[in-house]
Write a sequence for this structure.
């Protein structure tokens, strides 16, 4: 076991010291860009004004023959674009792939000072994070970087789900985790070809009350268990949980419902793979103005957060005061970035 005194020491001579507290950033949507496509790269500046995080995707969904072009394209895009306060992330190739080493060496070496987070696919356990942690420290030291690059794990294997606590706590670089429903479904042997979302056959059927009459049924959420586990592991260790991709671009309502369930359960954001999903994620992961107004009433009625009061017929106490704070703190972060929401929240 590592001594607590050693946890915040740099892992390489000359590497920046790990953050004691993670930077607090609004990350409602992590927007995926395929950086081998020049036309999309050229729009990165415009995109940075619309999303909270721009992510260059070097892994799956890139044809093998475009892997190097994606890496080169991401580096060029990062150099050419001013991202302002918008996050810049990269999803690198998996640890066992032929591209991982050069993805990391080139990204950290050439644009390490602009890169906020590397997303690591198919993380199986804390050993994967330890390796990335050490390797990043060496690269940061070589590049003379002043701030540490954070690590985000994709939860997309059964072993990763089993080891979720160990992954969450493996390094002070851990930023958070995302559900990877497509790879997770495949590696678990789930019988679905969908990328995220529900399945019409995953349902409960009401008992027979009148023989021959149609029975009510309700579709259940295939991802509830995994998301709830991920939220607990992340929240317990002060990092963030995210819904991953929703692949059916023709069904914005289902996308919104999945994102909203994740938001209500504690997730901070979701991936947006298509421009149409940006507005959905923004709407879902910004708290509802009515909820914000009610939460502010609670805070105003209980200035020191103790005791019990009734507001609009509903009991409030120390615990609901804390719930209200979660909503108001998020609303303040949204309002600081987005004047439209500042007006809606009256903040
Ligand atoms: C994402 O990478 C997924 O596999 O769903
Ligand atoms: Mg995947």
């Amino acid at each position: 076991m590592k001594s607590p005194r050693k946890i915040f020491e740099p892992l390489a001579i000359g590497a920046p010291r790990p953050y004691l507290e993670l930077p607090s950033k609004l990350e409602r949507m992590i927007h995926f860009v395929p950086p081998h496509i020049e036309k999309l790269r050229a729009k990165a500046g415009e995109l940075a004004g619309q999303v909270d995080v721009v992510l260059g995707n070097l892994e799956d969904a890139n044809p093998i023959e475009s892997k190097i072009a994606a890496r080169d394209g991401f580096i060029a895009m990062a150099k050419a674009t001013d991202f302002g306060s918008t996050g810049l992330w990269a999803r690198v190739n998996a640890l066992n792939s032929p591209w991982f080493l050069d993805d990391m060496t080139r990204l950290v070496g050439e644009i390490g000072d602009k890169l906020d987070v590397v997303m690591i696919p198919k993380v199986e356990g804390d050993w994967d994070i330890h390796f990335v942690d050490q390797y990043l420290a060496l690269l940061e030291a070589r590049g003379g970087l002043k701030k540490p690059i954070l690590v985000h794990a994709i939860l997309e294997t059964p072993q990763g789900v089993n080891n979720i606590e160990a992954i969450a706590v493996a390094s002070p670089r851990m930023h958070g985790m995302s559900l990877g429903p497509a790879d997770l479904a495949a590696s678990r042997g789930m019988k679905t070809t969908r990328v995220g979302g529900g399945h019409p056959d995953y349902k409960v059927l009401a008992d027979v009350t009148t023989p021959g009459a149609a029975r009510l049924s309700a579709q259940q959420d295939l991802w509830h268990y995994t998301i709830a586990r991920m939220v607990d592991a992340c929240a317990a260790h002060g990092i963030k949980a995210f819904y991953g991709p929703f692949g059916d671009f023709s069904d914005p309502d289902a996308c919104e419902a999945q994102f909203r369930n994740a938001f209500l359960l504690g997730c901070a954001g979701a991936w947006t793979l298509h421009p149409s999903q940006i507005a959905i994620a923004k709407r879902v992961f910004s708290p509802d103005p009515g909820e914000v107004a009610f939460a502010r009433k609670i805070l105003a009625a209980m200035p020191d957060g103790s005791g019990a009061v009734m507001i609009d017929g509903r009991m409030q106490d120390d615990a609901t005061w804390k719930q209200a704070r979660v909503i108001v703190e998020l609303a303040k972060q949204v309002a600081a970035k987005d004047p439209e929401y500042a007006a809606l929240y009256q903040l």
Summary: The domain at 4-285 is CATH 3.20.20.60 (TIM Barrel). The chain has two domains: 4-285, 291-345.
